[in-house]
């Protein structure tokens, strides 16, 4: 599989920059062979067997010479795909299209070739390493983790706390390990899930105890902070830490000391804390369920790791890894895996691979029929929403509330960004006018 995206005949538009981050688009071939993501930098990108100068070439006998094109939409910051009268048609998320808006995580099919489209806000100065089989979102998160590893708080010079946000099963612990590796700290990487703490023993778990401190304390115990001295302590699901236990953690983060349960003096520790959560900590703070001052300590450097629906380039390499060996996929099976929503993220993908592995040896190839029923349905019945319920007044009022943010408006209305953009274009409404 080979591709190029020189686009020497087009004038490249400047990426939209907001809040110190540039919005950039990437296209990657993910099946049958993975290619490195290609950044869309021109005004038109043609994909096909012979797309011409500046196009993305795919080696696929079932694809047309010029199969489809990608262009910036006329409204907002969306992208649009248009089929170029191809012989087999262009599929978007499993459905045939002639012209359609696309968004972050879109899956396109030309012949038997599958591609993903990614929309990413890249912080100024960050250059993710783009490589085959790695989604752009994940590459950006890894680049941020590398940067976070070396950061230290100004003044005291203590290592900056890092907060990882993302859904359950997205791989936050692996990202935390990357932060630790980049830090060069000599101590250990110690991980704990705060949801598993025995409420009565949280202090002992985190800070240790001395012999005789309570019933059953038959010997001294160091605790997790002491175990991570000069290393990294990963506090997964930190939002599950009970409110009445949070002040002790806050003091340790502020002072760099711990007091084991039953001890009469504090011990100094040098620990980089990486916390993770799938919950909105800002909202929990507003509701009084999480301390504002603790949140302020944990949020020194934030990294967002999205779920698989926004990292679709990761799906097939991960699936092959979970199969414990290369078992060929049919194009339809690969497409079904790519367009499924994966509500349990990497864990759900691993369970699907476990089921497939039980039958794949005899079949020799993985077809759609070997996949879990829910995955099979994904490619056959992509849900559509009746757009007629969205009128111009609703759109205008929503854009005012969200200051032109189409993603937020789509989330509020329960529609996709593509559907909102279609209605905006139909009514001649430009979201830029509300920003």
Fraction of residues in β-strands? 15-25%
The rounded distance between the terminal residues' Cα atoms is 41 Å
Annotation, overall tally of beta strands: 19
Structural class: alpha/beta
What is the CATH superfamily of the largest domain? Answer: P-loop containing nucleotide triphosphate hydrolases
* Relative helix content: 25-40%
Specify Rg, calculated over alpha carbons.
25 Å
How would you describe this structure to a colleague?
The protein is of the alpha/beta class and 435 residues long. It folds into three domains: 1-128, Tumour Suppressor Smad4; 136-304, P-loop containing nucleotide triphosphate hydrolases (Rossmann fold, 3-Layer(aba) Sandwich), CATH 3.40.50.300; 387-434. The chain has 14 helices and 19 strands. The chain has helices at residues 136-149, 172-183, 202-207, 224-227, 246-255, 281-286, 292-298, 315-322, 331-339, 345-363, 373-380, 392-401, 406-413, 417-427; strands at residues 16-18, 21-31, 38-40, 45-48, 56-57, 68-72, 79-83, 90-92, 95-97, 99-102, 106-110, 113-123, 162-165, 189-193, 231-236, 257-258, 267-268, 271-277, 301-304. The strands form four sheets. Strands 1, 2, 3, 8, 9, 11 and 12 form a seven-stranded antiparallel β-sheet that branches. Helix 9 packs across helix 11 (373-380). It is globular, with a radius of gyration of 25 Å. Mean pLDDT is 85; it is low at 1-15 and 382-388.
């Amino acid at each position: 599989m080979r591709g190029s995206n020189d686009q020497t005949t087009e004038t490249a538009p400047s990426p939209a920059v907001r809040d110190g981050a540039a919005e950039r688009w990437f296209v990657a071939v993910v099946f049958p062979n993975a290619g490195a993501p290609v950044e869309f930098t021109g005004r038109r990108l043609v994909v096909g067997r012979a797309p011409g100068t500046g196009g993305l070439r795919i080696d696929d006998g079932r694809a047309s010479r010029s199969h489809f094109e990608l262009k910036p939409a006329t409204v907002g910051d969306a992208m649009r795909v248009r089929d170029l009268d191809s012989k087999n048609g262009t599929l978007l998320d499993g459905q045939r299209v002639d012209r359609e808006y696309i968004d972050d995580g879109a899956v396109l099919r030309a012949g038997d070739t599958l591609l993903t489209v990614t929309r990413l806000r890249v912080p100024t100065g960050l250059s993710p390493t783009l490589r085959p089989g790695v989604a752009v979102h994940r590459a950006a998160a890894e680049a941020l983790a590398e940067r976070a590893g070396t950061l230290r708080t100004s003044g005291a010079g203590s290592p900056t706390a890092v907060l990882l946000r993302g859904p359950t099963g997205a791989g936050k612990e692996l990202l935390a390990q990357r932060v630790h590796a980049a830090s060069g700290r000599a101590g250990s990487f110690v991980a704990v899930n705060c949801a598993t703490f025995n409420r009565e023993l949280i202090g002992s778990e985190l800070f240790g105890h001395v012999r005789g401190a309570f019933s059953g304390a038959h010997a001294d115990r160091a605790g997790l902070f002491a175990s991570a001295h000069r290393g990294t302590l990963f506090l997964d699901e930190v939002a599950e830490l009970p409110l009445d236990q949070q002040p002790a953690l806050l003091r340790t983060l502020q002072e760099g000391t711990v007091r084991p349960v039953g001890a009469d003096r504090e011990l100094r520790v040098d620990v980089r804390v990486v916390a993770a959560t799938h919950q909105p900590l800002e909202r929990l703070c507003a509701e009084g369920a999480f301390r504002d001052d603790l949140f302020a300590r944990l949020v020194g450097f934030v990294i967002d790791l999205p779920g698989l629906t926004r990292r679709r380039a990761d799906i097939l390499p991960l699936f092959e890894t979970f199969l414990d060996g290369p078992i060929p996929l049919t194009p339809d099976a690969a497409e079904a895996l790519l367009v499924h929503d994966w509500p349990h993220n990497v864990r759900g993908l691993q369970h699907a691979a476990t089921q497939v592995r039980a039958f794949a040896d005899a079949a020799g190839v993985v077809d759609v029929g070997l996949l879990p029923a829910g995955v099979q349905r994904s490619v056959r019945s992509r849900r559509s929403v009746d757009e007629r319920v969205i009128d111009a007044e609703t759109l205008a009022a929503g854009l005012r509330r969200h200051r032109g943010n189409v993603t937020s408006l789509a989330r509020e209305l329960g529609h996709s960004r593509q559907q909102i953009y279609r209605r905006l274009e139909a009514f001649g409404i430009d979201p830029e006018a509300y920003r």
